[in-house]
Amino acid sequence: MPITANDPKRKTWLETPPDTDFPIQNIPFGVFLTRDDIITIGTRIGDYAIDLGALHQLGYFSGIELTDDIFLQDTLNDFISDGRKTWRLVRNRIADIFDNENPKLRDNNEHRKHILFTLDEVEMQLPVQVGDYTDFYSSKEHATNVGTMFRGKDNALMPNWLHIPVGYHGRSSSIIPSGINARRPWGQTLPEGATEPIFGPSKLVDFELEMAFITTDANVLGEPIPVNEAEEYIFGLVLFNDWSARDIQKWEYVPLGPFLAKNFASSISPWIVTLDALQPFKVEGPKPIMEQLPYLQYKGKKSYDINLEVYICPENGEENKISNSNFKYMYWNMAQQLAHHTINGCNVNSGDMMGSGTISGPSQDSYGSMLELTWRGEKPIKLSDGTERKFINDNDTVILKGFCKNENVRIGFGECRTKLLPAINM
Amino acid sequence: MPITANDPKRKTWLETPPDTDFPIQNIPFGVFLTRDDIITIGTRIGDYAIDLGALHQLGYFSGIELTDDIFLQDTLNDFISDGRKTWRLVRNRIADIFDNENPKLRDNNEHRKHILFTLDEVEMQLPVQVGDYTDFYSSKEHATNVGTMFRGKDNALMPNWLHIPVGYHGRSSSIIPSGINARRPWGQTLPEGATEPIFGPSKLVDFELEMAFITTDANVLGEPIPVNEAEEYIFGLVLFNDWSARDIQKWEYVPLGPFLAKNFASSISPWIVTLDALQPFKVEGPKPIMEQLPYLQYKGKKSYDINLEVYICPENGEENKISNSNFKYMYWNMAQQLAHHTINGCNVNSGDMMGSGTISGPSQDSYGSMLELTWRGEKPIKLSDGTERKFINDNDTVILKGFCKNENVRIGFGECRTKLLPAINM
């Protein structure tokens, strides 16, 4: 089925700001609370949030096989379960409804009142109930940087890294949408040179610049997903900040991996941009340095050219851009990650979320964490207000932004914005 | 509120086999499919499955604040969310309904037909939808055994082990109830002496003898649970077999922990035995070898004397007992695990599951995995049919059993039984 929603020539009758992340070619999916305290599934064009529940009730999706309440839900999980064909039909229809040439809704004031909200009238929620969340570790630059810091240049990459899209399980309960605050965590740390741990608020709270993809029901327990089919099961992507407490992590993570250093909060942007919308931005990925096992060998382009930016905004201050990276730097792509995740028969469900791992680029200003940007705090970053940052300070807001751009169209993710509150009193 | 359901003198009018795991003092909770293809929440006394949905509809829970459909659900999550007071009222009431002296249901044939099922008339399901599953690593004997094998006797325990109830996140989608088969997984492994991995079915599939506890909604994001309150949030326990592919684990697990080596299947027993039912079996835990940080220091008894057994049953063969362990061997108890898990503010929900980690005892016949029982395969176990096992063979069934016993009563968990099917063809 053609993705007519992507037509770069299409214009909408809605007023949209120039250079918006959400032109009519984007049509992402999210969940929001309306001014009437109703939760609904919606999309966004320009600075309008669009109530898909109301659109459906008013008959705008007639002819598409959808249950009556598919959009009147507090998560996208059931809609995602409906599968790629339905996503595509719905997205194409939405493009059609808001197309400049289509008078049906455009000229119906009554309907528009029920369907359109300005952004300040809605409160974005988590778009899915995340059943399981997995985080990968798929940027070679990031793994090399961290490995160099902890084991020296010659042993930077672990022996398995070039063979395996290394991943580990994360905590889904503490995933929060953009706009919800995180808290500096308490925990055990081992001071430099000490033999006994101490207990206190983490001193080294860091962000991690990641993207995450959301899956549909992909397989039954026991059956792998072939690498060249994997993208069929990916609904879309969000920006993802995998908050990390480096001092807690260092003391706890051997031998079973990060735990409390990560599960105090993980932030995502609220609009899931569909893989369909990103099709114009497919690019070749990095060439494998070493031959990969057949189940990881793929055909065609499976990387995406998505510009990524990180900003720190001190309390009452301004946004300081501290990193420029790109999703295309990932050594292992999403199809390889999903093929690897299921090669042992592990089952993947609608609403599962898979993080990319920190996305660092080749240059120092493209690193995806404070750990790397300041090289363990050795080279602090200067902000516009004259203060310095080695890691994230109390009341700093960390903002991730992401967008694709070509000569025709810009498809963006908006923001993933999280303020770090001070540790609670104990 | 007194736990009258635990009264050891109580007898039931139901016929129960001598030495059953499920006397009237147990009253566990589970979910089953009935002969009429209806899913319901139930309990078990002797060899009867009891439909709590039907009991509720017939008015047997009058006076207890419960929504009408609380038992007509396919998971226990909502009932567990109702909290400890409700669990206790319902358990006390069930004990009362089936008490020898109570004629109400005993003498009502019509009601009994709707409420009582023999075990062969029901099909046990997963008792909860597991939102997040965490696995700990809390048996000192197990950590020492594994550490000795991989790093030698002098470095067996990692420096953090005596300070932290080490834990890591697991995969909830592949948790299966007793009776569902597992599959030997495919994966990458690094043969002895090789520098490149190979791809094939795991050769070293192992069980892990664990118990797991199920929580209720415990805290909001950002707020820790104090160690001495933690048990208030524990609904009950199940037997847990954390299937592990040792060869896949060895190659993949550095530096972020086990992943595909574990997430192909994890089996649990279907009846959740409440923490209330286990109160008579509270015992002192092992003395701390080293002082623990204040947030991990607890008052009173928080360990439980639960006998654990492991059996291997070859296809068409008989059950061979291969291990006798006990839950009381755990160095870190459940209250410490939950206090640690939340000390950074991580939020815990109804239906979350926390595994103990492999429970090995002090003697060689009390180890909780083939890895330890056969010492990496060096000392194979002889079965009654003359065959040997280093790890688990195709079509072997692994059975975990668990029970508490004192002079008055036996409270058991039944079985966690899983057959390992051969790897799929690729």
From TrEMBL, chains A, B:
Residues 25-127 form the Fumarylacetoacetase N-terminal domain. Its EC number is 3.7.1.2. Pathway: Amino-acid degradation; L-phenylalanine degradation; acetoacetate and fumarate from L-phenylalanine: step 6/6. This is fumarylacetoacetase. SUPFAM superfamilies: FAH, Fumarylacetoacetate hydrolase, FAH, N-terminal domain. The keyword Ubl conjugation does not apply. It is an enzyme of class 3 (hydrolase). Its cofactor is Ca(2+); Mg(2+). Residues 134-419 form the Fumarylacetoacetase-like C-terminal domain. GO terms for molecular function: fumarylacetoacetase activity. The keyword Magnesium applies. Pfam families: FAA_hydrolase (PF01557), FAA_hydrolase_N (PF09298). Keywords: Calcium, Hydrolase, Magnesium, Metal-binding, Phenylalanine catabolism, Tyrosine catabolism. It comes from the Bacteria.
